[in-house]
Amino acid sequence: MRVTEEGTMTAVVSAGVDSSAESRAAAGWAAWEAVLRDARLRLVHVEEWPLPLAVAVPTIDRADHRRWADDLLDGVGDAVRQEHPGLRVETRRLSGRPAAALAVEASEEEVELLVLGSRGLGTVSGVLMGSVGMAAVGAARTPVVLVREHGTVPGGDVVVGTDLGEPQDAVLGFAFAEAERRGCTLRAIHGWTLPVALKTEVARNVTEELHAELLPWRRAHPSVTVVERPVMGAADTVLIHEAAGAELVVVGRRERRSPLAPHIGHVAHAVIHHCSSPVAVIAHP
Question: Which residues contact 170 (CB under 8 A, 6 or more apart)?
Fold first, then answer.
């Protein structure tokens, strides 16, 4: 871990970089986040060799690919330095399976956030290319932010999905801190479903539970304006609808693994694929 002259350790925001427009948008978003956190920006490219058959070119050898990767990192680094002249930017080229290498990168002590490009749904190639990001989200314990090609919506709210039956500290702590850094409103959304006959009574209880859950965080972050939104409906559908125009959407995922693949959860999975705003996925017990 790097230590400044004053003896304090400096945090890192890490961004995965490849040749896609989404990853360049992710690097730009990560640069701005690093400025907000007074952190270093680390641009990371994972060299997967031999190249996957879908992109392999017979005339390119490993040395050529490494030169290409270094040029890519240098180009993206120059672009973000021009946009943020005071930002401390470093680059790193890794080797291995992209999702695993990115998860290891995110596990380093100084890394506070991993930022990746995301295509969401819409085309077959988008789903396939998004598999690396999804796998990294499922493997990383560090918060992961997925950014679409258009980047972000300046001036929007931070929206957080709340699950009153799950541990909330990591998710709410991240959401409140992001809203505070940006000086924007935090909208806390909770979707719930029950038979219509019980709607009025249960709605009152849900509203009270949501308020009680948020109260300690309101006190810890008094400068943050909070809007509490318990909405009747499926949690994933409600959150996707409420997140329209958000500057950042925050969701949680349980830290557990299935025998076949890391577990993400249906709400986080739906939001990642269908929200156009950047989505932060926060692992919790």
Answer: 252, 282, 283, 284
How many angstroms separate the CA atoms of 223 and 179, rounded?
9
10-residue stretch averages of pLDDT, the chain, 285 residues long: 53 93 93 96 85 53 82 95 95 88 91 88 38 83 91 84 88 97 96 64 82 96 96 92 94 72 80 92 90
Name the pTM for this structure: 0.87
Question: What would the two tokens of residue 17 be?
Answer: 């970089």
Closest alpha carbon to 212 in 143, 285, 262, 162: 162
DSSP string, 208-220: HHHHHHHHHHHHH
What six digits make up the tokens of 165? 């039956």
Contact between 40 and 2 (Cβ < 8 Å):
yes
Q: What is the pLDDT of residue 54?
A: 45
E-assigned strands of the chain?
12-16, 40-47, 89-95, 111-117, 144-147, 158-161, 186-192, 226-232, 248-254, 279-284
